[in-house]
Write a structure and sequence with these properties.
The complex is a heterodimer of chains A (222) and B (370).
Chain A (H helix, E strand, L loop, with lengths): L7 E5 L3 H25 L12 H29 L15 H14 L5 E2 L7 H26 L6 H5 L1 H6 L2 H32 L4 H7 L1 E5 L3
Antiparallel strand pairs in A: 1-3
Helix pairs in contact in A: 1-2, 2-4, 4-7
Chain B lengths: L4 H6 L7 H5 L4 H14 L7 H9 L5 E6 L5 H7 L4 H10 L1 E5 L7 H14 L5 E5 L2 E2 L8 E2 L2 E2 H10 L3 E5 H6 L12 E2 L1 H4 L5 E4 L6 H14 L12 H4 L10 H6 L9 H4 L18 H4 L23 H4 L19 H25 L4 E2 L6
Helix pairs in contact in B: 3-4, 4-11
Classes of the chains: A mainly alpha (222), B alpha/beta (370).
The structure holds protoporphyrin IX containing FE and iron/sulfur cluster.
Iron/sulfur cluster (SF4) binds next to helix 13 of chain B.
Chain lengths: 222, 370
């Protein structure tokens, strides 16, 4: 490895919108999960009927919900205008042979069959696929969240726009979905932090710091 | 009460404004009724005279009231109205030509009355349907006078000016249609596609909403505006949770934790006891039942979501806030499963981490290129 050090370049991998939406999503999901758990199983914290405990918790949930929705939408937009590491192709590696090969390699490493740590510059292929699933879960949360929210004003613009969701879910099914997907995202968060740590240690590509600063050390062919 | 045809001949029905007074309903009570109905319909006070005028006019629409897979709860709700005035007013502005429970005629005579109305007032009468309609095996699971419910409904509703489905069973299939739905029960609008149906669900329906719908029809000559589930907006346009008298306790964060606890005695919010007010659209909190006496949440019991489609399947368990997660035992709540999932993920990756940390000799790919 040491012999390569002189050939390492710093490459700008994660552009500002990628990093910004990453951290906004994280903060929003933490806020949404904490408030969501209270909404889901509240404790009697109000001492007086004029208190507004659940009221404020819901205000925070809805504000974080709007922030999250805008952040997710921005990231999706950036998948079409950003650099190639941010691009949508990174999230569908299973659609092209090279991506499928990378997925296979990554999988073999993860299950301890291969000792070779693949080291792509952007997302590894398995991570990219996972993020596709995570973004689908995000969209489910945003969709069901706003659909639950719009029920306070049936016939309003939001309620009308979300008509297909009401056809898709029963009222209770929608709540249960919104609730359960939170736990899937908690599971994802655990996996995500672990894998970032693992890759930081094993592939020695500076993955952890790259999401703060945007740069990764990259070896260029001579 | 509807009279059998000979009784009607004995007591000639006076028409016009005095008609009501002669039947023992004072002008004052009559106007009060018109005002209350305008309020239920969310109409401005300026339309009260128009409602009064329409009710005093002499064109009593004929009604055929059919009952199929139901418990007669909706008929009961109508007849048991605490204040007899309303019941009488409804039955007096209408000519209920057929209603198995309350009509004097029986057997072939009763069927004849229905056929007569169907023929003579074709396209002009109102059909009211109570109860679901089974369609499995040719509809044999509910027969009246030797004919299947679906057959009768298609004939009667097909020839009606409009059909009002009263109660949740007629509106959405209700309890007969709950899983596993052995008789293939469906709603009126499903059994009679093409009929003009307005749904007034509820278990039972709130009589005020039926009266208001009929008055709207008599006054304006058309059915009131409906939502996506065919329910009149004036009654089903708002969520119970958003008009509930316990809502301040919900926002404050004060919940009944157990039946009969301090919070329950103080009238706290029933959210944690499985109240389905947050997902149910109905005017119960404002209109209430039995001449505005009370309603479930007012009486200290959570809303069961009875006016929503498939409530027996989707709103259960009634005393838990969220449904059971399909495929897991009934003791498993969504949160127990979620916590298990999170703990399992953490454990799995923890083990993976230990193995990875102990594993020596992993090689990073050298082929990365910028
Ligand atoms: C990752 C994102 C999110 C998480 C983890 C989350 C979590 C939760 C949880 C656990 C509940 C309680 C559900 C229940 O038990 O009934 C809830 C309720 C709710 N959430 Fe979210 N949520 C998220 C995003 C959103 C978004 C984007 C919106 C849109 C504004 C939203 C709106 C709502 C609404 C309206 C409720 C019901 C509140 C009530 O009935 O008082 N959520 N959320
Ligand atoms: S009692 Fe039910 S409807 Fe009323 S505020 Fe509480 S949850 Fe909402």
């Amino acid at each position: 490895m040491a012999r390569n050090r002189s050939c390492l370049y710093e490459e700008y991998v994660w552009e500002v919108p990628v990093r910004a939406t990453h951290w906004i999503n994280m903060l929003a999901i933490i806020a949404l999960s904490v408030t969501g758990i209270y909404i889901g199983s509240p404790k009697t914290l109000g001492l007086d009927p004029s208190d507004y405990v659940m009221g404020w918790v819901r205000v925070v949930h809805f504000t974080a919900g709007y922030t999250f929705a805008i952040s997710v939408a921005s990231r999706i937009w950036w998948a079409f205008v950003g650099n190639r590491h941010a691009g949508w192709r990174e999230f569908v590696p299973f659609l092209y042979p090279e991506g499928r090969r990378d997925m296979g390699r990554m999988f073999l490493y993860y299950v301890f069959i291969s000792r070779k740590v693949p080291h792509p510059t952007g997302h590894n292929a398995l991570a990219g696929t996972t993020y596709l699933l995570v973004f689908i879960l995000y969209l489910v949360m945003v969709g069901t969240g706003f659909a639950l929210y719009a029920e306070h004003a049936p016939g309003g613009v939001m309620h009308t726009l979300l008509t297909p969701l009401y056809a898709l879910f029963s009222d209770q099914g929608m709540r249960l979905t919104h609730h359960m997907v939170m736990w899937l995202l908690v599971g994802f968060a655990i996996h995500h932090i672990y894998s970032a740590w693992l890759m930081d240690v094993k592939e020695r590509g500076g993955v952890m710091s790259s999401i703060f600063g945007g740069y990764k050390p990259v070896k260029r062919g001579e | 009460m509807p009279k059998s045809s000979d009784e009607r001949e004995v007591i000639p029905r006076p028409s016009g404004a005095s008609a009501w007074e002669e039947r023992g309903i004072s002008r004052r009570d009559f106007m009060k009724f018109c005002t209350a109905t305008a309020a239920a319909l969310a109409l401005p006070v300026s339309l009260v005279p128009r409602i009064a005028e329409a009710l005093e006019a002499d064109g009593r629409p004929s009604v055929i009231w059919l009952e199929f897979q139901g418990c007669t709860g909706d008929s009961e709700a109508l007849l048991r109205a605490a204040n007899p005035t309303v019941g009488e007013i409804v039955l007096d502005v209408l000519s209920v030509d057929y209603h198995e429970t309350i009509m004097a005629a029986a057997g072939h005579q009763a069927e004849e009355a229905r056929l007569k109305t169907e023929k003579e007032r074709s396209g002009k009468y109102i059909a009211v349907v109570e109860g679901a309609i089974p369609v499995k095996d040719g509809g044999i699971y509910c027969c009246v006078g030797g004919r299947s419910a679906v057959d009768i409904a298609r004939e009667v509703c097909g020839g009606a000016l409009a059909t009002i489905a009263v109660g949740t069973c007629a509106s959405f299939g209700g309890i007969p249609a709950a899983a596993p739905n052995p008789t293939g029960a469906v709603s009126v609008s499903e059994a009679v596609p093409g009929a003009t149906v307005v749904n007034i669900p509820g278990c039972p329906l709130n009589t005020d909403n039926l009266v208001a719908t009929i008055v709207h029809f008599i006054t304006f000559g058309k059915l009131p505006a409906v939502d996506g589930k065919g329910r009149p907006l004036f009654a089903f346009g708002k969520r119970i949770h958003d008009n509930c008298e316990r809502r301040a306790h919900f926002d404050a964060g004060q919940y009944v934790e157990q039946w009969g606890d301090q919070g329950h005695r103080k009238g706290y919010c029933l959210y944690k006891m499985g109240c389905k007010g947050p997902e149910t659209f109905h005017n119960c909190p404002t209109q209430r039942y039995n001449e505005k006496t009370s309603w479930p949440v007012g009486a200290g019991h959570g809303c069961a979501g009875c006016s929503e489609p498939h409530f027996w399947d989707t709103m259960t368990p009634f005393y838990r806030r969220l449904p059971n997660v399909p495929g897991f035992g009934i003791e498993m709540t969504a949160d127990k499963i979620g916590l298990g999932l999170a703990a399992g993920t953490a454990a799995a990756f923890g083990i993976h981490g230990v193995v990875s940390a102990l594993r020596k000799g992993d090689e990073s790919d050298e082929g990365k290129e910028g």
